[in-house]
Amino acid sequence: MMRMVFGVASAFFLSTSAMAQQVSLPSDTEYRGILLATGAARLYPNGRVSEAVLKEDYQAGFFTLQGGTAITFDSVGNIAVGTLKTPVTIGKLTYGPGRIAFNASGIVTSAALKTGSEDFNLRIPVDGTALFDGNGRVSTFTPITGAPYRLLGKTVMQQITVAFNDVTRSYWLYQGQAGLPQLVARVTPKYSTSGLPMEAAPVILPAAAQFSCSVAEQSIAPDFSCLWTLTSFKLNGVDFGPTPQVTVRDMRVVSVLIYRDLTIGGVAYKSGQKIILDDSGRPIPPSL
Known about the structure:
It contains no helices and 30 strands. The termini are far apart.
């Protein structure tokens, strides 16, 4: 086996990086202590390696990167992307085999996560992939299955975005899709002559409804303020049209952003207008 100082070869191949120059390694080549395999590689304009193939397994901190797979470097020589050979548990997070990415400080920015991984109150219930913020906290999780799953006390599905509260040291759901129908509010459509509520009705949104919950108000209570994007929405006999955005705050529907012209109770509303609702779920005319 021959090792050599990394040099530019004359052969070229299709590059996926706009900044990379296409080269070919004539032999197994060492770069910054990492053995690269003979064949295709890419160089940055500054001469550093952009991409190549590992000749053999390489230990990058806690992580064993698998030989025979692609490795990517940033423009200053740090490992940016590789393929994790075996699961690694750090703290209570278990990173699974597969592609793993790092920032310039060596913090993981994306990786597979195994079932049972934990970080504070976040418990991963199914294998999937995750993105991490600059502090190493999970920011996005995508399960390997399309089936609904439980995360942070709610049934969700597909990709979910979470946020970490540095004050409470806990995660909360920020954006995603509901995995089951959600009871999000109540309305009181009928009142007595004295003004007391005579009945209440639940507002239930369908599974797969998209939600985005307020960052500022999460410190008050989970789900305190969430924006729901629906295929359709009806309330008190009013059809608010296609793809409305419904804002729910403290178990009350407070507004509906519509995307078609509507007339409700003799009042005309334009597409793109936000309709404010009262406690009974009825529109409050703009003049009031």
